[in-house]
Amino acid sequence: MFWTTGSRAGHVALYVGNGKIASNDIETPGRISIVPATDIETKWGATYLGWSPPYFPQGG
Fold first, then answer.
1. Do strands 20-24 and 14-17 pair parallel, antiparallel, or not at all (unpaired)?
2. How far is Cα 36 from Cα 22, in angstroms, rounded to an integer?
3. What letter does residue 38 receive in the DSSP assignment?
4. Is the pTM of this model over 0.85?
């Protein structure tokens, strides 16, 4: 999932199901947390841009 944050980099997180994502720095700096996907918008004021399916060109 992708968000724009108003800064150059934006934010990317992995969807893990049931409306939750694995995201860094959202609860504890330097750590990955499983949180509701809406936390990126409500806690950081980011704007959701969309998602993309996984792409593994060299995968099994």
1. antiparallel
2. 9
3. T
4. no
For residue 59, what is the DSSP state? -
Strands (DSSP E) found in 1-60: 2-4, 11-12, 14-17, 20-24, 32-36, 47-50
53 near 8, Cβ under 8 Å?
A: no
Cα(56)–Cα(33) distance, rounded to whole angstroms? 24
Whether 21 and 15 have beta carbons less than 8 Å apart is answered as yes
d(C-alpha 16, C-alpha 7), whole Å: 25
The pLDDT tens digits for 31-60 are 999 999 999 999 999 999 999 998 889 986
Residue among 35, 53, 41 nearest 10 (CA)? 41
